[in-house]
Design brief:
The complex is a heterodimer of chains A (640) and B (150). With 640 residues, chain A is an alpha+beta fold. Helix content of chain A is 47%, strand content 12%. Chain A has a five-stranded mixed sheet, with helices on one face. By secondary structure, chain B is an alpha/beta fold. Chain B is 43% helix and 15% strand. In chain B, strands 2-1-3-4-5 form a five-stranded parallel sheet, with helices on both faces. The chains are: A alpha+beta (640), B alpha/beta (150).
Chain lengths: 640, 150
């Protein structure tokens, strides 16, 4: 009869070969010496990350050893015993909730990761039971290979050294091993050997089982995964970033090469002439309890990594017994035995590419794989690829800059063309008009009476003067701006009201706008102002011209003079399309045309107001705009 | 019977010389400054002009935007082209010739009129036609063509 002493303590478990554990566990199941012990198998999940390890737990009942999700029982007669389909977290969660109701259970329940030690083990330990867990890692096996597994298992258990296993009903053993997916003949045995002497054999990791996967999924997976891996590598801007993308890389590797899990080691530097590696990341399922790697795992030298057979035994600590290494000429994966504070050894196995293995030979032929995953090559790869990317990026930027320059040039040319068109239009119209009159006079002067002749000539002169005034006004400003000429102010006294009346009269004739009236009622004062006459005429010509162009028909243009803050101001008011308050200052921007102006036929330059203000400022005055609904008021501040 | 010309151009001031010249040559000239007024004239069953002189760059008032959307008139810069396209059939049906007379002389505007169906010879830039003798000659050529086809 087995007593508790027949069973190993958690510490002892961690020291022995796994085969012994299996035997004992199986015996325990078979004999059920007052203990309910289930053999817990590591069930591969489609998405182990989601399951968080919780589906690694079996639930068994007395009559049915259907290996589904489970947890251990404290008593043979009772306990929650829920059968959960594999990967059915809901059922498992329900089981855990039921356990939580158990008054005997006072441990914490973790909902993910740690189904073993955080959930199941406390139940066991609390009742002074010993938990014996045996976890087999492995890959998912296609159903069609079950028969092959049976055959292999049969072969295995009938070996001389496995006689004890023959005591176990085959059906149960079969179920135990059912979850171990084997994909090639002989691999079950190999993995079992590893289990049996985990500490020794862990360096000769079993051949991973990607062959089947590879056959199943074909090269497409390989291409996809290599692509993912490459992308992750290339995106890494530095080695630091590379490590951050390790989960992606390793996840892809896992899918492709069917690793179960592993630890990422990072080269941290060198010490005493040796390179030191530190474990920084884990990938895959299998860890029941993963300690903080950076804190609890030690560093390993590259020599240690290269030793295929040496097992690095670490001191017992809160993290338990941890062994890790990366086989030589393999990937940077490591295998770790991780265990938490409950002292139970969970033996977790992963595979790695090992030199000499069939898989490895295949991979040897895959240059990309090798070049990607040699630690020393990664930086070089990144550097060279980054260089290429930088060059490409540089080229792209240059091209983009060139395109931008070309676009701006085209825009500038377009603007200049439009400006030229506008200028031509703007200045040509009166000249065309004048030429029209003059050529008519030339050809028809005999039929025109003297009166009409004089009127026509006067009109032509006005039209030409109109153009000349505008040309002078604008050209002065542009000449100053271009540094070609200093704005020469020729101050003279100007009777503002009289000059404005003359100007309006001339403009009415020139523009033939009979429905616009000029109202001087608001000229309360009639000051003499001193400024450049050309500037004065240009400024008011522009303001009145705008008012005529954009006023509503039948409206007045009001001209006024006022006192504001102790100085005279001259105003030009008109009613027309509203100018928005936000546009008040924009009006004085060069080439800006208001919405109402832009709608008109006048493909104007949009420089009139700007030039007018420049004139005023050159004369030590100013010009601004006030708006209110449809009323626009241009306020001219003559020089003081 | 004197020839009648409808002149759609919102520039009233600088066409003095040309209108004066046409009138002195015996033409009856009616100037319209709004597109919508021009459209009304053309839609009038009693429309009986011999020639339509059509400006291109004309403002489109807000109330005219439904018939002459700014997007189609290029905010007024091509209002005359849209007007021509809209009423081309009506004008042709009535045997009325069109002279596009515009400040614009660029190839783009000429091409657009050609595409709209206006013969090349019925386009004149105002700079070309600033001399009213030259302008008059163009008008007479177009009207002569009309007479031949009647």
């Amino acid at each position: 009869m087995l007593s508790r002493n027949d069973f190993l303590s958690p510490d002892e478990i961690s020291q022995i070969a796994p085969r012994r554990i299996i035997e004992l566990a199986i015996k325990g199941v078979m004999k059920e010496y007052g203990l309910s012990i289930s053999v817990m198998l590591d069930i591969d999940e489609d998405d182990p990350e989601l399951s968080g390890g919780t589906d690694k737990v079996f639930i068994t009942d007395k009559g049915d050893y259907e290996p589904h999700c489970a947890f251990l029982r404290n008593h043979p007669d009772e306990r929650v015993n829920i059968k959960c389909p594999k990967s059915d977290r809901d059922h498992f969660e329900r089981a855990k909730r039921e356990v939580a109701k158990d008054p005997n259970y006072s441990g914490e329940i973790y909902t993910c990761r740690g189904g073993l030690q955080d959930f199941v083990v406390p139940i066991i330990e609390r009742a002074n039971n010993t938990f014996i867990g045996v976890i087999f890692g492995g890959q998912k096996r296609p159903k069609e290979f079950k028969s092959a597994a049976r055959r292999r298992l049969r072969d295995f258990i009938f070996k001389q050294q496995n006689r004890d296993l023959q005591l176990v009903p085959f059906r149960r053993l079969y179920r135990l091993f059912l979850k171990v997916d084997q994909v090639a003949e002989g691999q079950l045995e190999e993995m079992m050997e590893t289990c049996q002497s985990i500490a020794r054999e862990i360096s000769d990791t079993f051949r991973f089982f990607s062959e089947q996967k590879r056959t199943e999924m074909g090269l497409k997976l390989e291409t996809n995964c290599v692509g993912i891996i490459e992308s992750a590598l290339l995106q890494a801007g530095s080695e630091e970033e590379l490590w951050l993308s390790m989960p992606i890389i390793l996840g892809a590797m896992k899918d492709w090469l069917c690793f179960d899990w592993g630890i990422v080691l990072k080269r941290e530097g060198s010490q005493d002439g040796k390179e030191i590696f530190r474990a920084i990341e884990t990938i895959g399922h299998g860890f029941r309890h993963t300690p903080e790697l950076k804190k609890e795992l030690l560093e390993f030298s590259s020599e240690e990594l290269e030793r295929k057979t040496e097992v690095i035994a670490l001191p017992q600590s809160a993290a338990g017994n941890i062994e890790s290494f990366a086989p030589r000429n393999s990937t940077m994966w490591a295998i770790a035995l991780a265990r938490g504070e409950y002292g139970v050894s969970a033996i977790l196995i992963c595979g790695s590419v090992q030199e000499g293995s069939g898989r490895h030979e295949e991979l040897e032929r895959m240059v990309d794989f090798k070049s990607l995953f040699r630690l020393s090559k990664i930086s070089a790869l990144i550097a060279s690829r980054r260089g290429e990317l930088r060059a490409l990026e540089g080229e792209r930027k240059r091209r983009a800059e060139l395109e931008e320059v070309e676009r701006k040039q085209a825009e500038t040319i377009d603007t200049l063309n439009n400006t030229l068109l506008s200028l031509t239009h703007w200045l040509n119209r009166p000249l065309i008009g004048a030429n029209g009159i003059l050529t008519t006079i030339r050809d028809k002067h005999r039929e025109l009476g003297p009166e009409r002749l004089e009127e026509a000539i006067a009109w032509a002169i006005i039209a030409i003067d109109h153009t000349a005034l505008v040309c002078r006004g604008i050209s002065r400003i542009f000449a100053v701006e271009g540094g070609r000429e200093k704005f020469k102010i020729r101050r003279e006294k100007i009777d503002a009201k009289i000059e404005l009346q003359k100007l309006c009269s001339t403009m009415r004739i020139a523009f033939d706008e009979s429905d616009i009236s000029f109202n001087f009622f608001e000229f309360r004062e009639s000051p003499d102002i001193e400024m450049d006459r050309d500037s004065f005429l240009y400024v008011f010509y522009t303001l009145i011209d705008n008012a005529i162009k954009y006023s509503d028909f039948g409206k007045e243009i009001l001209l006024g003079c006022d006192m504001e803050g102790g100085r005279y101001t001259l105003k030009v008011k008109s009613y027309g399309e509203p100018i928005l308050p936000v546009e008040k200052e924009k009006v004085f921007e060069r080439f800006w045309r208001g919405r109402n102006a832009a709608r008109g036929d006048e493909v104007g330059l949009g420089i009139g107001c700007w030039a007018a203000r420049e004139h005023m400022r050159h004369n030590d005055g100013d010009l601004r705009l006030e708006v209110s609904s449809r009323l626009s008021i241009f306020i001219v501040y003559p020089p003081m | 019977m004197p020839r009648q010309i409808l002149w759609i151009d919102n520039d009233r001031s600088f066409l003095k010389g040309h209108i004066m010249r046409l009138k002195m040559e015996g033409y009856l000239v009616k100037q319209i400054t709004k597109l919508s007024d021009g459209a009304d004239e053309i839609r009038d069953p009693n429309f009986n002009y011999d020639l339509l002189i059509l400006d291109v760059m004309m403002s489109v008032k807000e109330e005219e935007e439904e018939e002459f959307p700014p997007s189609e008139t290029d905010s007024g810069r091509g209002a005359g082209i849209l007007f021509y396209r809209k009423y081309k059939n009506t004008l042709e049906a009535k045997g009325i010739k069109v002279l596009a007379f515009t400040i614009r002389s660029d190839e783009d505007i000429r091409e657009r009129f050609r595409e709209a169906g206006l013969p090349e010879s019925n386009f004149m830039a105002k700079t070309e036609g600033s001399d009213t003798s030259v302008f008059l000659k163009k008008v007479e050529e177009i009207l002569a063509e009309r007479t031949q086809h009647r």
